[in-house]
Design brief:
alpha+beta, six-stranded mixed β-sheet, 6 strands, 57% helix
């Protein structure tokens, strides 16, 4: 009996320690995170993110030097175009699902609301090479552009290119967000029935 009591006491101590660590992690994720970001280009992507967390106790910068990867990206671009053409219809087929488009719009809207952007300058020009596919993608991003223009200190321009495949991107801004809130939004999106069906569709198409 004494041995069983010691085992139960050990299990209780381990469970208590795990619960304490989980609570501590949740409290840390609930502390606001301030960041300033600047990005430009896609291939290669260049930019920098400056983060300030725990009321200024933690500060660091993350650089994205795209120039060093330019040659590697150029070598793979030709082969990537061919393989991308094979996988592209599967992704575009998901854009034809009205329920998934609606769920993506809702996620983007929730993320923008949770980000608390105090400054935003965004320039995007995109096209998929097919007017119908570009129109479906624009059905997701178009309302986002209108919503972003309503934010204070926001200068947003998102333009569709219906007749050519193109992706131009520039972004700069400041934000104050709560990591726990973004984590909850991401988990809710990934575990939603719409996302699960989309994941199964992609896996089935590549099987």
């Amino acid at each position: 009996m004494a041995g069983m009591g010691a085992v139960f006491a050990l299990i209780g101590a381990v469970v208590g320690a795990l619960l304490f660590l989980l609570l501590l992690l949740l409290l840390l994720l609930a502390v606001p995170l301030e960041l300033a970001f600047r990005f430009e280009g896609i291939e290669p992507l260049k930019g920098q993110v400056a983060l300030r967390w725990l009321f200024g106790l933690v500060r660091f910068r993350i650089s994205v030097p795209g120039a060093g990867r330019r040659r590697h990206g150029q070598r793979e671009r030709q082969s990537g175009r061919q393989s991308g053409r094979e996988g592209r219809p599967n992704v575009l087929a998901l854009l034809r699902e009205a329920e998934l488009r609606q769920r993506c719009r809702r996620l983007l809207s929730d993320v923008m609301a949770a980000a608390h952007l105090s400054e935003l300058r965004l320039r995007v020009r995109l096209g998929l090479g097919d007017p119908a596919d570009t129109g479906r993608l624009w059905a997701i991003l178009g309302p986002l552009s209108v919503l972003a223009r309503r934010l204070g200190n926001a200068d947003v321009r998102i333009e569709p290119a219906f007749m050519e495949p193109v992706l131009e991107f520039q972004a700069q801004g400041r934000s104050r967000l709560i990591p726990l809130q973004l984590l909850a939004l991401a988990i809710g999106f990934v575990l939603s029935p719409v996302s699960i069906r989309a994941w199964r569709t992609l896996r089935g198409s590549h099987a």
